[in-house]
Amino acid sequence: MSRLLLVEDDAMLAEALSLALRGLGHEVAVATTGEQALESLVERREAADLVLLDVMLPGVDGFEVCRRIRSGDTVPVILLTARGDAVDIVVGLECGADDYVVKPVEPRVLDARIKAVLRRAVPAQPSRQHVHTLGDLELDTVAMVVTRNGEELNLTSTEIRLLIEFAEHAGQVLSRQALLKRVWDYGFSGDSRLVDAAVARLRAKIEPEPTNPVLLRTVRGFGYRLVKP
Protein backbone atom coordinates (compact mmCIF):
# COMPACT_ATOMS: atom_id res chain seq x y z
CA MET A 1 0.00 0.00 0.00
CA SER A 2 1.50 3.34 -1.08
CA ARG A 3 1.13 6.44 1.07
CA LEU A 4 -0.03 9.44 -0.93
CA LEU A 5 -0.30 13.08 0.07
CA LEU A 6 -3.03 14.75 -1.99
CA VAL A 7 -2.74 18.55 -2.01
CA GLU A 8 -6.01 19.92 -3.38
CA ASP A 9 -8.06 22.95 -2.28
CA ASP A 10 -11.30 21.82 -3.96
CA ALA A 11 -12.96 19.89 -1.12
CA MET A 12 -15.34 17.90 -3.35
CA LEU A 13 -12.59 16.88 -5.75
CA ALA A 14 -10.22 16.02 -2.90
CA GLU A 15 -12.87 13.80 -1.31
CA ALA A 16 -13.75 12.09 -4.59
CA LEU A 17 -10.12 11.45 -5.54
CA SER A 18 -9.10 10.25 -2.09
CA LEU A 19 -12.04 7.83 -1.90
CA ALA A 20 -11.28 6.46 -5.38
CA LEU A 21 -7.55 6.09 -4.68
CA ARG A 22 -8.23 4.36 -1.35
CA GLY A 23 -10.49 1.98 -3.24
CA LEU A 24 -7.55 1.25 -5.55
CA GLY A 25 -5.34 0.30 -2.60
CA HIS A 26 -3.61 3.54 -1.64
CA GLU A 27 -3.40 5.23 1.74
CA VAL A 28 -4.30 8.91 1.24
CA ALA A 29 -3.74 11.97 3.41
CA VAL A 30 -5.18 15.31 2.27
CA ALA A 31 -3.82 18.85 2.56
CA THR A 32 -5.91 21.78 1.31
CA THR A 33 -3.15 24.41 1.08
CA GLY A 34 0.48 24.54 0.12
CA GLU A 35 1.35 25.61 3.65
CA GLN A 36 -0.29 22.48 5.10
CA ALA A 37 1.60 20.29 2.64
CA LEU A 38 4.95 21.89 3.51
CA GLU A 39 4.23 21.65 7.21
CA SER A 40 3.51 17.94 6.84
CA LEU A 41 6.44 17.07 4.57
CA VAL A 42 9.14 19.56 5.52
CA GLU A 43 8.48 20.61 9.10
CA ARG A 44 6.95 17.47 10.61
CA ARG A 45 8.72 15.22 8.08
CA GLU A 46 5.73 12.92 7.80
CA ALA A 47 6.39 10.09 5.37
CA ALA A 48 4.78 9.98 1.94
CA ASP A 49 5.66 7.74 -1.00
CA LEU A 50 4.32 10.26 -3.51
CA VAL A 51 2.74 13.74 -3.58
CA LEU A 52 -0.23 14.62 -5.81
CA LEU A 53 0.04 18.39 -6.02
CA ASP A 54 -2.55 20.79 -7.42
CA VAL A 55 -0.95 23.74 -9.21
CA MET A 56 -3.60 26.37 -8.44
CA LEU A 57 -3.53 26.58 -4.65
CA PRO A 58 -4.41 29.58 -2.46
CA GLY A 59 -1.39 31.27 -0.89
CA VAL A 60 1.70 29.25 -1.75
CA ASP A 61 1.00 27.76 -5.19
CA GLY A 62 1.90 24.29 -6.38
CA PHE A 63 5.03 25.41 -8.23
CA GLU A 64 6.53 26.95 -5.10
CA VAL A 65 5.51 23.94 -3.00
CA CYS A 66 7.29 21.68 -5.49
CA ARG A 67 10.43 23.85 -5.40
CA ARG A 68 10.55 23.75 -1.59
CA ILE A 69 10.01 20.00 -1.50
CA ARG A 70 12.75 19.49 -4.07
CA SER A 71 15.22 21.64 -2.11
CA GLY A 72 15.59 18.85 0.45
CA ASP A 73 13.56 15.78 -0.54
CA THR A 74 13.40 13.31 -3.42
CA VAL A 75 9.80 12.18 -2.84
CA PRO A 76 8.10 11.80 -6.25
CA VAL A 77 5.69 14.60 -7.21
CA ILE A 78 2.86 14.48 -9.75
CA LEU A 79 1.33 17.85 -10.61
CA LEU A 80 -2.44 18.13 -11.02
CA THR A 81 -3.32 20.96 -13.40
CA ALA A 82 -6.68 22.12 -14.69
CA ARG A 83 -5.00 23.39 -17.84
CA GLY A 84 -2.84 21.66 -20.39
CA ASP A 85 -1.05 24.93 -21.01
CA ALA A 86 2.47 24.23 -22.27
CA VAL A 87 4.05 26.98 -20.18
CA ASP A 88 2.46 25.70 -16.95
CA ILE A 89 3.57 22.17 -17.72
CA VAL A 90 7.16 23.13 -18.48
CA VAL A 91 7.38 25.40 -15.41
CA GLY A 92 6.07 22.58 -13.24
CA LEU A 93 8.52 20.06 -14.62
CA GLU A 94 11.40 22.50 -14.22
CA CYS A 95 10.38 22.94 -10.58
CA GLY A 96 11.22 19.27 -10.11
CA ALA A 97 7.93 17.45 -10.68
CA ASP A 98 8.24 13.87 -11.94
CA ASP A 99 5.05 13.95 -14.00
CA TYR A 100 1.80 15.84 -14.48
CA VAL A 101 -1.83 15.03 -15.25
CA VAL A 102 -4.52 17.36 -16.58
CA LYS A 103 -7.78 17.48 -14.61
CA PRO A 104 -10.35 16.03 -14.80
CA VAL A 105 -8.65 12.64 -14.71
CA GLU A 106 -10.09 9.16 -14.34
CA PRO A 107 -8.95 7.57 -11.05
CA ARG A 108 -7.64 4.45 -12.82
CA VAL A 109 -5.61 6.59 -15.23
CA LEU A 110 -4.18 8.51 -12.28
CA ASP A 111 -3.50 5.21 -10.50
CA ALA A 112 -1.52 4.00 -13.53
CA ARG A 113 0.56 7.19 -13.56
CA ILE A 114 1.18 6.88 -9.80
CA LYS A 115 2.36 3.29 -10.18
CA ALA A 116 4.64 4.21 -13.08
CA VAL A 117 6.29 6.98 -11.04
CA LEU A 118 6.63 4.72 -7.98
CA ARG A 119 8.26 2.01 -10.09
CA ARG A 120 10.93 4.52 -11.02
CA ALA A 121 11.62 5.13 -7.33
CA VAL A 122 12.66 1.47 -6.92
CA PRO A 123 16.36 0.77 -7.62
CA ALA A 124 16.94 -0.46 -11.15
CA GLN A 125 18.27 -3.90 -11.86
CA PRO A 126 22.06 -3.56 -11.83
CA SER A 127 23.97 -4.08 -15.04
CA ARG A 128 27.21 -6.02 -15.22
CA GLN A 129 29.06 -2.75 -14.85
CA HIS A 130 27.34 -1.20 -11.87
CA VAL A 131 29.75 1.72 -11.34
CA HIS A 132 30.26 4.24 -14.13
CA THR A 133 32.92 6.95 -14.02
CA LEU A 134 31.92 10.09 -15.89
CA GLY A 135 34.72 12.58 -15.47
CA ASP A 136 34.63 13.67 -11.83
CA LEU A 137 31.28 11.91 -11.35
CA GLU A 138 30.74 8.36 -10.14
CA LEU A 139 27.41 6.66 -10.78
CA ASP A 140 26.58 3.57 -8.71
CA THR A 141 23.60 1.81 -10.30
CA VAL A 142 23.14 -0.55 -7.34
CA ALA A 143 23.16 2.05 -4.58
CA MET A 144 21.39 4.53 -6.92
CA VAL A 145 23.85 7.23 -5.90
CA VAL A 146 25.80 9.82 -7.87
CA THR A 147 28.85 11.41 -6.28
CA ARG A 148 31.30 14.12 -7.28
CA ASN A 149 34.71 13.77 -5.66
CA GLY A 150 33.12 11.57 -2.99
CA GLU A 151 30.24 13.97 -2.20
CA GLU A 152 26.73 12.71 -2.95
CA LEU A 153 24.63 14.82 -5.32
CA ASN A 154 20.95 15.44 -4.61
CA LEU A 155 19.38 13.69 -7.60
CA THR A 156 15.85 12.31 -7.74
CA SER A 157 15.27 8.67 -8.65
CA THR A 158 14.03 9.75 -12.09
CA GLU A 159 17.19 11.78 -12.70
CA ILE A 160 19.37 8.85 -11.62
CA ARG A 161 17.51 6.45 -13.90
CA LEU A 162 17.91 8.92 -16.74
CA LEU A 163 21.65 9.17 -16.11
CA ILE A 164 21.89 5.37 -15.95
CA GLU A 165 20.31 5.11 -19.42
CA PHE A 166 22.79 7.60 -20.81
CA ALA A 167 25.77 5.96 -19.08
CA GLU A 168 24.82 2.48 -20.28
CA HIS A 169 24.43 3.78 -23.85
CA ALA A 170 27.36 6.20 -23.83
CA GLY A 171 28.08 7.60 -27.27
CA GLN A 172 24.69 6.55 -28.63
CA VAL A 173 21.95 9.01 -29.52
CA LEU A 174 18.82 8.29 -27.47
CA SER A 175 15.55 9.67 -28.79
CA ARG A 176 13.03 11.32 -26.50
CA GLN A 177 10.52 8.56 -27.19
CA ALA A 178 13.06 5.86 -26.33
CA LEU A 179 13.83 7.64 -23.05
CA LEU A 180 10.11 7.98 -22.27
CA LYS A 181 9.77 4.22 -22.68
CA ARG A 182 12.91 3.22 -20.76
CA VAL A 183 12.84 5.78 -17.94
CA TRP A 184 9.18 6.78 -17.57
CA ASP A 185 7.69 3.47 -18.77
CA TYR A 186 5.44 5.36 -21.19
CA GLY A 187 4.59 4.42 -24.73
CA PHE A 188 4.47 6.72 -27.73
CA SER A 189 1.62 8.74 -26.17
CA GLY A 190 4.03 10.18 -23.61
CA ASP A 191 4.94 13.86 -23.53
CA SER A 192 8.48 14.55 -24.72
CA ARG A 193 8.55 17.70 -22.56
CA LEU A 194 9.07 15.37 -19.59
CA VAL A 195 12.39 14.34 -21.11
CA ASP A 196 13.53 17.86 -21.97
CA ALA A 197 12.70 19.20 -18.50
CA ALA A 198 14.38 16.25 -16.77
CA VAL A 199 17.52 16.61 -18.89
CA ALA A 200 17.63 20.32 -18.06
CA ARG A 201 17.38 19.56 -14.31
CA LEU A 202 20.01 16.83 -14.60
CA ARG A 203 22.39 19.14 -16.44
CA ALA A 204 21.95 21.77 -13.73
CA LYS A 205 23.18 19.24 -11.18
CA ILE A 206 26.00 17.47 -13.01
CA GLU A 207 27.36 19.90 -15.62
CA PRO A 208 29.91 22.57 -14.63
CA GLU A 209 28.23 24.89 -17.15
CA PRO A 210 24.64 23.66 -17.77
CA THR A 211 24.15 26.09 -20.68
CA ASN A 212 27.27 24.70 -22.35
CA PRO A 213 27.04 20.97 -21.52
CA VAL A 214 30.01 18.68 -22.05
CA LEU A 215 28.44 15.41 -20.85
CA LEU A 216 24.84 15.48 -22.09
CA ARG A 217 24.80 16.81 -25.63
CA THR A 218 21.66 17.70 -27.54
CA VAL A 219 21.27 16.08 -30.95
CA ARG A 220 18.96 18.57 -32.60
CA GLY A 221 15.75 17.14 -33.92
CA PHE A 222 16.29 13.72 -32.33
CA GLY A 223 17.38 13.49 -28.71
CA TYR A 224 20.45 13.38 -26.52
CA ARG A 225 23.84 11.67 -26.28
CA LEU A 226 26.21 11.21 -23.35
CA VAL A 227 29.84 11.91 -24.22
CA LYS A 228 32.35 10.53 -21.74
CA PRO A 229 35.19 12.94 -20.92
Description of the structure:
The structure is a single chain. With 229 residues, the chain is an alpha/beta fold. The chain is built from 8 helices and 12 strands. The strands form 3 sheets. It has a 5-stranded parallel sheet, with helices on both faces. A 4-stranded antiparallel sheet has the order 6-7-8-9, covered by helices on one side. A 3-stranded antiparallel sheet has the order 10-12-11. Strand 1 (3-7), helix 1 (11-23) and strand 2 (27-31) form a beta-alpha-beta unit. The longest helix has 15 residues, at 192-206. It is globular and about 55 Å long. 34% of the residues are buried.
N-to-C SSE string, H for helix and E for strand = EHEHEHEHEHEEEEHEHHEE
Mean pLDDT: 87
Helical run tally: 8
Helix/strand/pairing category:
alpha/beta
- Ranges where pLDDT stays below 50 over 5 or more residues in a row are none
Cα gyration radius (Å): 18 Å
Task: Compile the SSE list and pairings.
Elements: E1 3-7, H1 11-23, E2 27-31, H2 34-43, E3 50-54, H3 62-70, E4 77-81, H4 86-94, E5 99-102, H5 107-120, E6 131-134, E7 137-140, E8 145-148, E9 151-152, H6 157-168, E10 173-175, H7 176-183, H8 192-206, E11 216-219, E12 223-226
Parallel strand pairs: 1-2, 1-3, 3-4, 4-5
Antiparallel strand pairs: 6-7, 7-8, 8-9, 10-12, 11-12
Helix pairs in contact: 2-3, 4-8, 6-8, 7-8
Features:
four-stranded antiparallel sheet, single chain, 229 residues, globular, five-stranded parallel sheet, alpha/beta
